[in-house]
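Hey Z.,

So I finally got round to the magnesium ion thing we talked about over coffee. Here's the setup:
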Amino acid sequence: MENTENPIIRTEELTRIYQDGATVVALNRLSLEVARGEFLAVVGPSGSGKSTLLNLIGTLDTPTDGKVVVNGVGTGRLSGNALADFRRQHIGFVFQLFNLIPVLTSLENVMLPLVPYRRRLGLDLELRARELLAAVSLDDRMRHLPSQLSGGEQQRVAIARALINEPKLVLADEPTGNLDSQAGDECISLLRGLNQDRRVTVVLATHSEVIAQQANRVIHLQDGAIITG
Ligand SMILES: Nc1ncnc2c1ncn2[C@@H]1O[C@H](COP(=O)(O)OP(=O)(O)OP(=O)(O)O)[C@@H](O)[C@H]1O
Ligand SMILES: [Mg+2]
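And the result:
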């Protein structure tokens, strides 16, 4: 059942400490609320904790302390299949390095996250993937491998893949980091379009103030804490 309670994301005193020889406090008691439908940019220098924050919100990592609530669900209570189901139902990820599978075509990469659930969900997965690739203007690149695509095209495949589960939340970690400025602008336009047209909440990590200006709200991180916003 869709939970319509605001906010879509709430973190409470979220803390992540890495202990590998040295102790690094990557996130330091960070409390944040993100409203449904918001486009939030998280800006900060390298090492300020942007990826750590997105990974914790996306349940790819576990906090040392504090809490993450997404769509009204405290994610600390989830594990195993429940966690995988939760991610599949709620979250789409876009990464700096695209993370496409090299031996799969664009179409196969986009379908991949839902292939194991195809029968259970009873949907025409290929049709949905085709529609998403068309929406990112890759109609003519469906059968290409990642190595046959430009960086911008690969990132558009990755955006289409992030949308295959129709998530209400997309987490984009430095998605323009490996793109030239034109491809980077296209990538951000796509994310903005998603946000405006489909009311997908977007959290975008970037070191660029210029890119961050495209968001509804900007928070600045330093040493794992919010310094403005
Ligand atoms: N797996 C890890 N083990 C140890 N320390 C880590 C690990 N991942 C991140 N860190 C440390 O945590 C801090 C925050 O890292 P994080 O990757 O969140 O920064 P970031 O803001 O995303 O930086 P960038 O802009 O370079 O991507 C850094 O000091 C980093 O070295
Ligand atoms: Mg990072």
